[in-house]
Amino acid sequence: MSALQPSSGKSQAAPATTYDVVVVGAGFAGMYMLHRLRGLGFSVRVYEQGGDVGGTWYWNRYPGARCDVESMQYSYSFSDELQQEWDWSERYAPQPEILKYANHVADRFKLRSDIQLNTRVDRAVFDESANCWDVTTADGKRVNAKYVVLATGCLSNARMPDIKGLSEFKGKVYHTGHWPHEAVDFTGLRVGVIGTGSSAIQSVPVIAEQASQLTVFQRTPNFSIPARNAALTPEEREAFRAKYPEIRRFAREEARNGIYTDMPDRGALDDGDNERRSKYEARWARGGLTFMSVYNNLAIDKAANDTAADFVRQKIAEIVKDPETAKLLQPNNHPIGSKRICIDTDYFATFNRPNVKLVDIRSNPIEQISANAVRAGGKDYEVDALVLATGFDAMTGSVAKIDIRGRNGLTLNQKWAEGPKTYLGLMSAGFPNLFIITGPGSPSVLSNMIVSIEQHVDWIADCLAYMRNSGVDAMEARKEAEDKWVAHVNEVAHATLYPQANSWYMGANIPGKPQIFMPYIGGVGVYRQICNEVAANGYEGFAMEAAEERQKAAVS
Length: 556
Ligand code: N01
Fold this sequence. Notes:
The structure is a single chain. The chain is an alpha/beta fold. The chain has two domains: 17-157 and 394-555, FAD/NAD(P)-binding domain, CATH 3.50.50.60; 160-222 and 339-391, FAD/NAD(P)-binding domain. 32% of the residues lie in helices and 16% in strands. The chain is built from 17 helices and 20 strands. It has helices at residues 28-39, 56-59, 80-85, 95-108, 198-210, 234-242, 244-253, 273-286, 302-319, 323-329, 347-350, 397-400, 412-415, 449-470, 479-494, 524-536, 547-552; strands at 17-24, 44-47, 115-116, 121-127, 132-137, 142-150, 172-175, 190-194, 213-218, 224-226, 342-344, 356-360, 366-369, 373-376, 379-382, 385-388, 403-405, 434-436, 475-477, 542-544. The strands form five sheets. Strands 1, 2, 3, 4, 5, 6, 17 and 18 form an eight-stranded mixed β-sheet that branches. It has a five-stranded parallel β-sheet with strand order 7-16-8-9-12, with helices on one face. A three-stranded antiparallel β-sheet has the order 13-14-15, with no helix packed on it. Strand 8, helix 5 (198-210) and strand 9 form a beta-alpha-beta unit. Helix 9 packs antiparallel against helix 10. The two termini are 37 Å apart. 47% of the residues are buried. Bound molecules: 3-acetylpyridine adenine dinucleotide (N01). 3-acetylpyridine adenine dinucleotide (N01) is lined by residues 67-68, 155, 161, 163, 176, 194-200, 202, 219-220, 340, 343, 361, 366, 389-392, 445, 504, 509. 3-acetylpyridine adenine dinucleotide (N01) binds next to helix 5.
């Protein structure tokens, strides 16, 4: 039975409806959170700003969009029937198929009745006297909830570049993270793509096939590995399914990034040149993100990393016919893997097409956009349509858009002004009963997101059940535990090469954003163990007190 049933009839000032839990977002995190909480008998309302479920996969509809984690692994594991019955068509599922899967899950588990679409949460204020959250949606409606769970996604706040004259452009402007629902046809058009991250690297080869002329404006080249995408045969799917118990266990408990793969037993410099080259060749031929798992020290030893980076640079030189273009496409200002490695289908080869041109805007920055051209280095590149593949305000951007006020009226944005501070990525001191799924301070974007989502959802669901069973009605990260965790996250990151890149992991893509390495790089297996131990030790590091005691626990 629900701890708090939806109720009405309160005073005019108070919200009319009360839920146990408000969940913000109906992507993979929000949907599974709803499923778990319902199973425990909590009353739940999920608010989703999009017109349907699916989160990232609802918004990112750009040409060529697909997941860079293999479909058989980028899928829920909580229901064996689901994973046995759903047929993925390709090694890497295209966006429409992942969205179809999200919709299938919503229908199969009858989630829709508790999900309110087209509804943004604008504000959440913790009412210290009533120990609950007062949540306001964009339509001005307010509800009460004992708990709020932010399932807002890490790459959901698309970032428009601040380029002079952009609003003067007369053609259509698209952002990859906000792609229209209707088909976009570039046939016969001169298209400009700004940005060369994962989204551009996936979309450029597809757009090049339609456009009469494609101009790619590149500030920083990226490392990319061939996807080697292919249709999955029924035999391949069956082989995977038969091994699911071990594959899922390994992904949760042993893999650093939540992906099943063979683990390296040595460092790159432990092998001679020929042996090393043949291992890189084998991974290149196999394709995919696990390229970086060939050796165990690529993320921590620059000399080892250089061997992998040199290998990929060499591959680019072999693929791209024009030496000048090849040189521009070779990344040279960050270790391989310190920015999210990209996975492509014919990205580099696309620059051999006569209708594709690469413009280096590192040495000749974009000066302005006019009605029909992008001007860089004093030269006008005429375009009919513009694709902005300029990324996201990652990890904190979507949380920051909500006006969240905790104890003493402190806003989460004020608290995080110098960088996000959380305990385990799950809660932030001063914000009782507010949980974050895959937030900063957790492995999150460094992992197979669905593995991390399921772990967080299960932990939060178990925690809420524990609180209810123990008669505890508020929970909050202790500041000391949070400070220690933030220091640990930082220390582990700085033992790697990751902070050497100006990446969105560091907040470096957003002017003025504090430069802090946001995700926890200790690995999903290690992290899961820490979370489990914290729970087993009576939620160590969290204050779980009676209402009167909590009111005294001021957070400095
Ligand atoms: O965004 P990005 P993304 N003028 O931030 C450039 C996931 N993802 O959408 O590097 C000119 O990586 C910017 O240049 P620079 C994945 O985790 C996954 O591509 O700042 N250029 C960069 O080249 C990924 O990492 C999948 O110098 C500007 C690009 O825009 C994450 O999402 C697919 C600019 C932004 O690259 C983000 O990827 C897609 C400006 N003003 C995405 N501002 C898969 O699963 C920015 N840039 C396969």
